Here is the input.
Amino acid sequence: MHKTMIALAAGALGLVLLLAVNSLANATLRSKRLDLTKDRLYTLSEGSTRIVESIDEPINLYFYCSEDAATKIASVQRYATRVREMLEEFALRSDGKIALESIDPEPFSEAEERASAEGLQAIPLQTGESLFLGLVGSNAVGETEVIPFFDPSKERFLEYDLAKLLYTLTHVEKGVVGVISSLPIQGGPPSPMQQRPAAPWQIITQTQEFFETRFLPSSVTEIPDDVRVLVIVHPKNLGDATLYAIDQYVLGGGNTLVFVDPHCDADTAGADPMDPMSGMGKSKASGLPKLLRSWGLELVADKFVGDRGNALPVEVGTPLRPRRVNFVGFVELGSRDLDADDPTTSLLQALRFGIPGALRPLPDATTTFHALAHSSEDAMLVDTSAIQYVPDPEEILRTFVPDMQRFTLAARVTGPASSAFPDGSPAKLPEDGSPADEDPEGSTDEGRAAHRAEGDVNLIVVGDCDVLADRFWVQKQSFAGATLISKTADNGDFFANCVENLAGGENLIAIRAAGEYQRPFERVEELRREAEAAYLQEKRELETKQQEIDGEINNLIRSATPGSTQVILTKEQQEQLESMREEREEIRRRLRDVEYGLRKDIERLGTKVKLANILLVPALVGLAALGLGVFRSARAKSSRRSS
Amino acid sequence: MKNLFYITRRELGGYFSTPVAYVFLFIFLLLAGVLTFLLGGLYENGQADLRSFFFWHPWLYLFLVPALSMRLWAEERRSGTIELLLTLPVTLWQVVVGKFLAAWAFTGVALLLTFPVWFTVNYLGEPDNGTILASYAGSFFMAGGFLAIGAFTSALTKNQVIAFVLGIVTCFLFVLFSIPPVVEFMGKAVPAGVLSTITSFSFPTHFQSIQMGVIDIRDAVFFLSVIVFFLFANALALDVKKAK
Here is the structure.
């Protein structure tokens, strides 16, 4: 009895010790972890570290978390812990500049009122309580930035969002967005046909809400120092001096957003609005071939990307008999065609392009080319001459042969590059070839920046300018004197994301979305692609035939009984109908075979995989056991015999 | 130290000479495969990770580990061989830890034999092998936790079946408080501080953290401290029963 008591007491003590050790560990061992993930997801990335280390003023971070409510839901508790610990790591690396305070806004408390006042979102739970999980950051001048709610489904952007908040707090001057554009995106004086001045494009109006936008002339020879992001839209025949200015700006680390286009629908330059024919034949293309080349990429000339897989319908035919046909030049890319990890594209659902060009990295590029948006595989490069005059979408579809590769429509380009002007500023070189060092006035030497021969670039290049045009992403409706603007695509968001991301500088750009990478089964995808390549053509032909047959059958029925509700067919017509229906059944059967063929190989692989995993090793174990059993009984028998 | 090594080796060798071990391996591997592919849909999901595989481990261990541990002590106590064992020049601790380590090593073997599924995802795609390695390590530690509990319950009785049932019930307590509806229900009955302490002691919670690819030292401390505690309780139980 005595012994049992001691044992129980010892056991109880052990239990207390167990609880104590774990509590202590939870409280103190905060940042000690072994990050084995391939991309080091749980360690602060270099970009974040640099942003934090560059903070030179005191920052206050107030982390609001409703403890009671969070404990109830395991996934929220886990995420809240992750957020808090990441904040602590930021604070740790800030060398004391960041003061982090955790606040539990209990219901009806002052803290809760303050949380709501600051703009934090309270999520009502099933239990009736409200959950606060947000952040308020303020800097030395009293400006605040808020993350209203940390959404667990956006965990991949946690580090980016926090770094961006810190960056914004420490770089309050928004900076200037400089725009060089050959398109009238800022609006303009009234044309002879209209009475009101042309309104600025919605994309600019939206940008002007957050940034000071300055429109630079196409002949600019120097990019002003305070331009944080340079946006170049539809550059046509820019002079060498301007090209040089851009070249030097980019090499100096200037963040640049470039829109080029093999054929821009919105380009009416050279066209007289009174004469609809005058615009035809004039080039609607833009490019920066010299600069793009030095940045390691090119826009495929005279061709646009026709993406049948993402084509949008347009109206063709005469006004009396309009038809809707898919035009492969007007495309809407969905989330599967956009980079899910880049902050500029990850949250977009639909991005519309109008006759986009293909961007390609050059084989000898020193920069890194990363596709942000690409076409489906059901795409090909179409000659721009096909749409130069009167485009015929149906003709293009008829002659469409998919290339089974994805063309890049927008890309991020970073890394080291060399100047496109290896001999320095083109303005310095005199026409007659004499040496440029003698300058009688001697004053132009001063203030001239040193020529940059190389540098690291931060660019986003987009192969289309129509993506910025209003008609591709907004719908304006006049309502009671006001104009209601509704979005039909996320083009505006894309532009805003690009500008914001580039304005954040190279460190913010370096922080990509982390966690939950899509890691598809490459082998299965390959099988799928091969199968599609083999069967897609046949499938489309069958589908077209099916539509035709359906049309014919309908016509037959309609022609037999014009107007009346009863279907009266002659014997001949009945036979015709029968044979058409048989043909339709045949087509349907063949379509099913094709669909089956597409999946067949994939399913076969799946079966093999499952068998191997479920039965293989257990079978081996069973065999081993049997073998051992046989071996032992044989040994036992022989030892019995010998004894 | 040498004694510990010999005890472990002897026990481990003993496993492979009994049919129980092979039956355990067979069932464990078969079940793991069936659950991963037929219920978990690893192939259909199309993602090169082993989430659908590791998801089932707490449940697999819950039922299979007590089956393994039930014979650790109960049988020896019933047949009296335990007394014989303790007359040898070994300490109680060495026997307790030795038997545990042997059983733990055996579950390690079982885990290793799941290698086809690792080959499979590497063949089909490009998984994050660091995360998979962390998950295997976490699973191994979790198995150790379940084993320590099972060994303890086995020492409490002479009847293997009772040891098995007790083992499952106790292990289940460590799994119960990771199930969301249960936690919600408890939240109504118990203050938040107590609730968070209870939930922080559930095995799947810590295992899930490790499955993200990060071995946080707190998770390692958790599993190790649980193992140490139950081995300690194991030794205590034996000590008390020894006299009887």
About this structure: Residues 571-642 of chain A form the longest helix (72 residues). Confidence is low (pLDDT under 50) at residues 430-447 of chain A. The radius of gyration of chain A is 33 Å. Residues 37 and 515 of chain A are 9 Å apart (CA to CA).
